[in-house]
C-alpha cells in the first residue's frame, strides 16, 4: 500500500513538471490542441501525458473533426480545481525567483483577491 499522505497522493498524479505545464496551458492560457502545446516555450508533447491525465479524470479529449481526427483537450471539474494551485505556484515563483516572468496584472490581481481571480478563471475555463 502506498502512502496515505495527501501531498504524496497528489504528487502521484501531478509529480512531473509536464503535467502542471499542460494544465497551465489548458487553464490559464486556453490552449486546446496538440499543435498549440508544441508551440509553447517548453514544446510540450501531449500524446502519452494526455492519456494519463484523461485516465485520472483531469482532462477530457474530444474530436473536433471526425474526418481529420484532430483532438481537443478540455479540463474537467477535477482539472479546474488545480487553478488555485497553479496561481499559487506562479505567485510563489514570482516572489522568489528573479528569473521568472509572470504576467504582472495577473499576479497583482491574484494577490489582491485570490478567491475572486481563481473563481473567474474557473468560470471562464
Automatic annotation (TrEMBL):
Keywords: DNA-binding, Transcription, Transcription regulation. GO terms for molecular function: DNA binding. Pfam families: HxlR. Residues 5-101 form the HTH hxlR-type domain. This is HxlR family transcriptional regulator. It comes from Kribbella caucasensis.
Amino acid at each position: 500500500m502506498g502512502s496515505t499522505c495527501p501531498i504524496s497522493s497528489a504528487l502521484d498524479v501531478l509529480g512531473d513538471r509536464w503535467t502542471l505545464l499542460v494544465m497551465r496551458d489548458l487553464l490559464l492560457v486556453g490552449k486546446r490542441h496538440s499543435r498549440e502545446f508544441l508551440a509553447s516555450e517548453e514544446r510540450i508533447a501531449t500524446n502519452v501525458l494526455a492519456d494519463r491525465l484523461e485516465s485520472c479524470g483531469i482532462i477530457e479529449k474530444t474530436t473536433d473533426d471526425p474526418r481529420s481526427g484532430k483532438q481537443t483537450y478540455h479540463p474537467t471539474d477535477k482539472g479546474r480545481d488545480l487553478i488555485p494551485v497553479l496561481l499559487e505556484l506562479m505567485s510563489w515563483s514570482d516572489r522568489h525567483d528573479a528569473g521568472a516572468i509572470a504576467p504582472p496584472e495577473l499576479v497583482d490581481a491574484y494577490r489582491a483577491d485570490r478567491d475572486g481571480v481563481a473563481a473567474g478563471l474557473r468560470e471562464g475555463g
